[in-house]
Design a protein that fits this description.
Number of helices: 11
Largest sheet: 6 strands, parallel
Structural class: alpha/beta
Radius of gyration: 24 Å
Distance between the termini: 92 Å
Strand content: 5-15%
Shape: globular
């Protein structure tokens, strides 16, 4: 007697062995052979995409790709956790020293590199200078526990667009990364205050003289521009300023551009210093008074 056919319906198409539920949307475009997670040719970094993972397509438009470099794994984990609170930010790689950070920036081409100042082999300031020299599309934010003024000025002098203190608020890290990714500069309020204090003691002019000069420059601004400048000095992003002043963010951006032009400075960091020197920092929010 002929045995019944027990072949299951699923076995009728043996050529289809791939389960579609495991396919990511990013894998649907195989023609793009440029991988944002291509493994570098040096020693494996402290963190990167698993080697057996299908190379991902570039991150969706609007996503800020970030590299973190710090020789302390716990600090890297903390920075990564803070940045993960913003769905528009993606950490694409981590490095344990400055040399590795430069190599991973070359491999991953992130929008922003967050670098610790003191790291083995190549320190953060040297890495920042190399990144800015060879990969200028990647903005650099320096992150450190140290408040020495020479580190701050050296970092800004080598092309870093932002400088944050690790003891600052987590929101400052997110705001700093977003500002630098947008082509702006960011100094946390603590850092801006230290820069002002340092400049006042370097022989470049007594503090009173610098304050008078800053106030004279600020006097040429409109009342609204002075208000915006005060919030720049407080370390606020365009979005935060817009909410504080009940303005459209595009309007704030236009005011910021006008402030930079009128003050004759190149970026928000320099404008923040002027705000501190002029003593026009904003009052704290009502809920903090």
């Amino acid at each position: 007697m002929t045995r019944p056919d027990t072949t299951r319906a699923a076995d009728a198409t043996p050529a289809d062995t791939t389960r579609p539920v495991t396919t990511r949307a990013a894998d649907a475009t195989p023609a793009d052979t440029t991988s944002a997670h291509t493994a570098p040719t040096h020693t494996a970094p402290a963190y990167t995409a698993p080697a057996d993972e299908t190379p991902a397509a570039p991150a969706p438009a609007g996503t800020i790709r970030v590299l973190i470099a710090d020789d302390e794994p716990m600090i890297r984990a903390g920075v990564r956790a803070v940045l993960a609170t913003d769905p528009g930010i993606e950490v694409v790689a981590e490095a344990a020293d400055g040399h590795e950070a430069v190599e991973l920036v070359r491999a991953h081409r992130p929008h922003v590199a967050v670098l610790d100042v003191r790291m083995p082999r190549t320190n953060g300031i040297e890495a920042a200078a190399e990144i800015r020299r060879t990969l200028p599309a990647t903005g650099v934010v320096m992150l450190t526990t140290f408040g020495e003024d020479d580190y701050i000025l050296r970092a800004l002098g080598c092309g870093a667009a932002g400088f944050l203190i690790k003891s600052g608020e987590p929101e400052e890290l997110v705001a700093g990364v977003r500002a630098v990714a947008d082509g702006a500069a960011y100094l946390s309020p603590k850092v801006a205050a230290r820069v002002v204090a340092h400049l006042a003691s370097t022989g470049a002019g007594a503090l009173a003289g610098r304050r008078a000069a800053a106030r004279e420059r600020v006097a040429g601004l409109t009342p609204r521009e002075r208000e915006v400048l005060s919030h720049l000095g407080g370390g606020l992003s365009n979005g935060q300023i817009a909410r504080r002043l009940h303005l459209v963010e595009g309007t704030v951006k236009a005011h910021v551009s006008s402030v930079l032009a009128r003050l004759g400075v190149d970026n928000r960091a320099a404008a923040a210093v002027v705000a501190h020197e002029a003593g026009i920092l904003p009052p704290p929010p009502a809920e903090q008074r």
